[in-house]
Specification:
Blueprint lengths: L1 E4 L7 H9 L7 H20 L4 E8 L2 E8 L3 E7 L3 H10 L4 E11 L6 E9 L7 E5 L2 E2 L3 H10 L7 E10 H10 L5 E8 L1 E2 L5 E2 L5 H6 L4
Helix pairs in contact: 1-2, 2-3
Length: 217
């Protein structure tokens, strides 16, 4: 797996990471969602440098200019519901991408810390021969992303696989390396070393879905 730790080079991205982590600032749901969207845009710009382009003649009012234009067809696939703000940020950059949405959640047995990944819903175009971008803001154990990828493979073989996350754990990254193709790109804003007993990232930022859209029962 090819890991791109985007915040290793200082940029305005660091400000947005700090704000989504800050327990006082993150209480503002609108600001939290907006910051996630902004980070999606920044990471998408970096990711776009790895795609295929070809020259095209563009006719201006005064003449013709050759510009390299993106060739690849892209499918953005997000895990509901936490992935939606990040998805929208990526979609602002790749505004002609196709979109897939998958409901994947942790199903705990008898209220224990052990869980399996339950997928109840998927809406997706064919991914065959296209660039598949999996979007999930929190890469904790990595099990959800792998389960979603396995489900999407029923719809074809992607040309290339990219994963975009905001905060990840070292354990989650290791799990992806073992269970996704070696050519996969992981674009991650920042990562932490620890997972607690419930599989949440520490220090992390909390529950991204709750912070973006309110607490659930």
């Amino acid at each position: 797996m090819i890991i791109k730790h985007v915040s290793q080079q200082n940029s305005i991205l660091n400000k947005f990471i700090a704000e989504i982590r800050d327990k006082n600032i993150q209480k503002d749901s609108l600001r939290f969602r907006t910051n996630i969207e902004r980070m999606g845009e920044i990471i998408s710009y970096e990711m776009s440098k790895t795609f295929e382009y070809s020259p095209r003649e563009i006719h201006t009012p005064l003449g013709v200019k050759k510009i390299n234009i993106l060739n690849d067809k892209i499918v953005l696939a997000s895990i509901l519901r936490a992935g939606l703000p990040l998805h929208m940020g990526v979609l602002r950059i790749f505004d002609d991408a196709e979109n897939a949405f998958i409901s994947a959640y942790r199903k705990h047995k008898d209220n224990s810390d052990e869980f399996s990944i339950q997928i109840d819903y998927m809406a997706s175009p064919s991914i065959d021969g296209k660039v598949l971008v999996l979007v999930d803001p929190m890469l904790a154990t990595g099990q959800s992303l792998v389960a979603v990828y396995e489900k999407l493979k029923q719809l074809g073989t992607p040309k290339q696989l990219h994963v975009i996350s905001i905060i990840g754990s070292e354990q989650g990254i290791d799990y992806l390396e073992k269970n996704l193709p070696a050519s996969t790109y992981l674009w991650i804003a920042d990562f932490d070393k620890e997972l607690n007993s419930k599989g949440y990232i520490v220090p992390g930022l909390g529950d991204a879905g709750d912070l973006a859209y309110g607490k659930k029962l």
